[in-house]
Write a structure and sequence with these properties.
Alpha-Beta Plaits, 18 helices, single chain, seven-stranded mixed sheet, alpha/beta
């Protein structure tokens, strides 16, 4: 049976619903987008319905390999395993190497007659784990009937052919961030191959092994192998969560990120608070006052010119926000927040602006470990989430200028005795590396076929989102190619990203299979 006949049978069997947008596209081009992509989505759905148990078991095997980027032995085992999975499916694979870095996994698969090349980015490393805070060891995947905090119970991994509940949760490090796209893409490829449905784009794979460490070698890889990426027409980043409403989203940008540590000083040794309290200045109080000067009670950053370089929110941005489901009230309830910053402004608007984040504070001990001591120093870690238009270094310059206006002498090393005696207020500032925000045009013609294809997969559920709140190294790809960059997330928004008990809802994994099938066959 030819693939068109098989596709018709699959569509009838699965009962695929096509959105109004897709129906219009089908009427205008009956032999192109709609027929190819409808068939592909139907094939993917039938495939994961039949093979769901095997897909989940194979994913658990991949998750069982520890993937901290600093664990050289296991990160290479991850790379070699993923290399083999795609090589077995006809991709021309390479492990690109540079000294002191995990391999960058590169793959390519040409589609006969294709005039477009889509590059798919995934990172295979994960955040470091604090094993004691996990319900189960982070690299021993466990399946639950629903989220653990909601009373989920352990369920055995299904045997081949057993049904799989879409609401089950698979717990392990990197389930949601960011290994899930790998088995989902593999299943989509297998589903299309089983029905002889051809790809419509050349595909390139870029799998990063140190994204959670800031991808310090990625720009070197891209520069050294620029010829491999010169023909890319669309960058597709597969990372991040679906919308908080649970609906699918296509995202056109990310925030940038940078930060700094600030240490302020008191006496040159710990002093008994009974003997010297009220006389010797405490560094904790000084730091608290300095931090309070940076931001008001409603979340407005008070640092001069902090918002000045930010690109304005456009009419297209506001239209996209208006079309997005209202979730702020639900999120406040979920997170136990009676109120949010900026007088309750929408989250979707706030992530289009830069933000000053208080990440942590260290001075002395607390609780039962507290002592009657005035400590020598206090340190705060401050994060800066960047919006379009913000330069990382210039934003840190603004923070430093504010610290100086509060009367502090800024240094880069701990002050010596002479400096302590000369300046009453000293702040050691240690800058962190960072990168800028990136946003693609929502109306870029190169992205339109992708939007149409995803709407065939999910109908009118698809949300077009101007930017994610998180950060990804998109700027490196912007420097490597002029092609637009978009993000196709598949993980559930409550996946405990970066935290203990990270998980993925299996229905989101299966959605990813259908979404990638649509990507591989878009017009």
């Amino acid at each position: 049976m030819g693939w068109m006949k098989k596709a018709a049978a699959l569509i009838a069997a699965v009962g695929l619903t096509v959105s109004a947008t897709a129906q219009t596209a089908n009427a205008q081009a009956p032999n192109a987008q709609a027929s190819d992509t409808e068939a592909a989505v139907a094939a993917a759905r039938a495939y994961h319905q039949a093979q769901g148990a095997a897909i989940v078991r194979d994913f658990a095997d991949l998750l069982s390999i520890p993937n901290d980027a600093l664990d050289a032995e296991n990160i290479r085992l991850n790379a070699e395993t993923i290399f083999g999975l795609f090589a077995a499916r006809g991709f021309s694979m390479e492990l690109l190497e540079t000294e002191g870095a995990p391999p960058l996994i590169y793959g390519a698969l040409e589609a006969p007659g294709a005039e477009r090349t889509v590059a798919i980015y995934v990172h295979y490393d994960g955040q470091p784990t604090e094993d004691a805070k996990w319900t189960h060891p982070p690299f021993e995947p466990v399946l639950y009937t629903k989220p653990i905090p909601e009373g989920g119970e352990i369920v055995p991994f299904p045997a081949p052919g057993d049904p799989v509940d879409h609401d089950w949760r698979l717990y392990a490090r990197s389930t949601g961030d960011d290994k899930a796209p790998i088995p989902a893409l593999i299943a989509a490829i297998d589903a299309l191959a089983a029905e002889d449905i051809p790809h419509t784009s050349n595909i390139k794979l870029i799998f990063d092994g140190e994204e959670e460490r800031g991808s310090p070698h990625l720009d070197d890889y891209l520069a050294a192998h620029a010829d491999k990426f010169a023909d890319v027409d669309l960058w597709l980043f597969c990372d991040g969560p679906t919308h908080q409403s649970g609906r699918a989203q296509l995202v056109f940008g990310v925030r940038g990120v940078t930060g700094l540590d600030v240490t302020v000083y008191g006496p040159n040794r710990g002093l008994h608070s009974g003997h010297y309290g009220g006389w010797a200045p405490g560094p904790g109080w000084r730091l608290a006052q300095l931090l309070a000067s940076m931001k008001d009670a409603d979340g407005e950053v008070l640092i001069k010119d902090f918002y000045t370089s930010t690109a304005p929110i456009t009419a297209a941005d506001r239209a996209a926000i208006a079309a997005t489901p209202a979730v702020d009230g639900q999120l406040r309830e979920t997170f136990g927040l009676a109120a949010t910053e900026a007088d309750g402004a929408l989250l979707a608007e706030r992530i289009l602006m830069p933000a000053l984040i208080f990440r942590g504070l260290k001075s002395a001990e607390v609780g039962a470990d507290a002592r009657n001591v005035i400590p020598p120093s206090a340190t705060a870690s401050i994060g800066v989430r960047l919006a379009a238009g913000n330069d990382p270094e210039k934003m840190l310059d603004l923070v430093e200028a504010h610290i100086k206006r509060q009367g502090y002498r800024i240094v880069r090393e701990d002050p010596d005795a002479a400096l302590r005696l000369k300046y009453p207020l000293i702040a050691k500032v240690t800058r962190r590396t960072g990168y800028p925000a990136v946003r693609s045009r929502m109306d870029d013609p190169s992205v339109a076929p992708l939007i149409d294809a995803l709407r065939i997969a999910v109908g009118d559920e698809l949300i077009l989102t101007p930017t994610l709140g998180g950060s990804l190294p998109l700027y490196m790809f912007e420097e490597a190619s002029a092609a637009p960059i978009v993000i196709l997330p598949i993980a559930n928004f409550d996946n405990n990203q970066h935290a203990p008990d990270e998980n993925i809802r299996l229905g989101n994994l299966f959605y990813g299979i259908e979404a990638y099938a649509a990507v591989l066959t878009m017009e």
